[in-house]
Hints:
The chain is mainly alpha-helical and 230 residues long. The chain has one domain (5-221). The chain contains 7 helices and 3 strands. The radius of gyration is 20 Å and the shape is elongated.
Amino acid sequence: xxxxxxxxxxxxxxxxxxxxxxxxxxxxxxxxxxxxxxxxxxxxxxxxxxxxxxxxxxxxxxxxxxxxxxxxxxxxxxxxxxxxxxxxxxxxxxxxxxxxxxxxxxxxxxxxxxxxxxxxxxxxxxxxxxxxxxxxxxxxxxxxxxxxxxxxxxxxxxxxxxxxxxxxxxxxxxxxxxxxxxxxxxxxxxxxxxxxxxxxxxxxxxxxxxxxxxxxxxxxxxxxxxxxxx
Length: 230
């Protein structure tokens, strides 16, 4: 598998897709970080208002350093927003904050894909960490069984990546609906929120495509699809 031209042929397009997705989300967020909302609410205010409306009282909203470092910490029940989102009174701030609240709502409702993803996370993390060593070790030692074990471990990580898609798409759907229903965005602002969240979703799609492509390559080299390890 070392310096395999086929690997480059498989992975270069997915790398290009990932780079495009990262550029797209950054440029879109930057664009709508310059456009304020009519409500004038900060991202933190948007988050707290939605949590209050949904009766979720045990989730804190905090500011965290970084750009696009926004996330919901389900273990500690903390919604962490980056400075431009936490204090921003923009379309991007409203959209990203509402998206992260969407995860908090999922957690409160025990949304099945999220709960399953959390259950799989420790195994997926372990599989992701050890898979490359098993695959490389199997190649070096010409051990098909070790390589297969590595691919199985990697497949768990790929499964976790695929589970992320419905979780993220559902959080974005919830964000768009609640912002419109609660009157926090109006008119063309909703289109801006959708543009931000759709661009962010593409980064998850790109990651999933890259993971699946790599898994298919490994399976091909194992001979599952007619290929063979050289």
